[in-house]
Amino acid sequence: MTPRILVVEDEAALATLLSYNLEKAGFAVSLASTGEDALLALAEEPPDLVLLDWMLPHVSGIEICRRIRREPATRDLPVIMLTARTEEADRIRGLETGADDYVAKPFSPGELIARVRALLRRARPELSAEELRAGAIVMNLAAHRVHVGDGEIELGPTEFRLLRHFLEHPGRVYSREAILDAVWGRDLHVEIRTVDVHVGRLRKALRDATGTDPIRTVRGAGYSLEAGGA
Ligand code: CA
């Protein structure tokens, strides 16, 4: 899956530059220009990593970072703080606030991308993993195969992507709209009930192979893969 980065930066030119370089490096980017927008974006769907400007109008980057660490849903979210402040005391304060890393402006895009990749490898190993697991279900990404115990499950390409999405975020509940975005892509026009059809097929394949149903339907909310798996 493409890691999603939320860039929180009030300088439009820098936000554009960051978004351009991150997308070129293979990341999906969403932008927020104020602390308030950042909090909304985080509540809507937590990204895989946040690039957070220290100096923002109204709600500062430090305050955003504190809130990210306070909320159970975002507590473990990797955060890189961007700042023009280079004093050691500020650096330490930034890390004490809960940021995982710190990049001082001006920085080279190459350096920033390297830091993003390093932090993602450390904090979200599943994003660069060769294999994804939940209980007895093992997905080999390189071989494009899914096994349960000794048996292989044959999945269609959409069910494979769907299962991959669930395995990358076990236990998290996704609305059908969010699943549509993640598995089919934002730009495609696919009807929402298509999600139910493919979840149904995936569910049947998993149930036939495991004897249990690891996909939970959350009424009015969506679907999740039980963290313990089958
Ligand atoms: Ca700023």
Explain what you see:
With about 230 residues, the chain is α/β, with parallel strands linked by helices. The chain has two domains: about 5-125, Rossmann fold (3-Layer(aba) Sandwich); about 130-225, Arc Repressor Mutant, subunit A (Orthogonal Bundle), CATH 1.10.10.10. It has helices at about 10-25, 35-45, 60-70, 90-95, 110-125, 155-170, 175-185, 190-210; strands at about 5-10, 30, 50-55, 80-85, 100-105, 130-135, 135-140, 145-150, 150-155, 215-220, 220-225. Strand 6 (about 130-135) and strand 7 form a beta hairpin. The mean pLDDT is about 85. It binds calcium ion.
The gist of it:
This protein is α/β, with parallel strands linked by helices and 230 residues long. Helices cover 42% and strands 20% of the residues.
Features:
single chain; 230 residues; alpha/beta; Rossmann fold; Arc Repressor Mutant, subunit A; 2 domains; five-stranded parallel beta sheet; 11 strands
Secondary-structure blueprint:
Blueprint: E1 4-8, H1 12-24, E2 28-32, H2 35-44, E3 49-53, H3 61-70, E4 79-83, H4 88-96, E5 101-104, H5 109-123, E6 131-134, E7 137-140, E8 145-148, E9 151-153, H6 157-168, H7 176-184, H8 192-210, E10 215-218, E11 222-225
Parallel strand pairs: 1-2, 1-3, 3-4, 4-5
Antiparallel strand pairs: 6-7, 7-8, 8-9, 10-11
Helix pairs in contact: 2-3, 6-7, 6-8, 7-8
The structure holds calcium ion (CA).
Residues 10-11, 53, 55-56 line the site of calcium ion.
Round the Cα radius of gyration to an integer and report it.
19 Å
Q: What hetero molecules are bound to the protein chains?
A: calcium ion
CATH topology of the largest domain: Rossmann fold
- What is the helix/strand order? EHEHEHEHEHEEEEHHHEE
Q: What does the overall shape look like?
A: elongated
| Major sheet size, sense and barrel closure | 5 strands, parallel
CATH superfamily of the largest domain: Response regulator
Tally of domains = 2
CATH architecture of the largest domain: 3-Layer(aba) Sandwich
Class of secondary structure makeup: alpha/beta
Query: How many beta strands in the DSSP annotation?
Result: 11
What distance separates the N and C termini? 22 Å
Number of helices: 8
Q: Order of strands across the biggest sheet?
A: 2-1-3-4-5
Unreliable spans are: none
**Average pLDDT taken over every residue:** 87
Q: What amount of the residues lies in strands?
A: 15-25%
Helicity level, as a percent range? Answer: 40-55%
Q: Regarding CATH, which class of the largest domain?
A: Alpha Beta
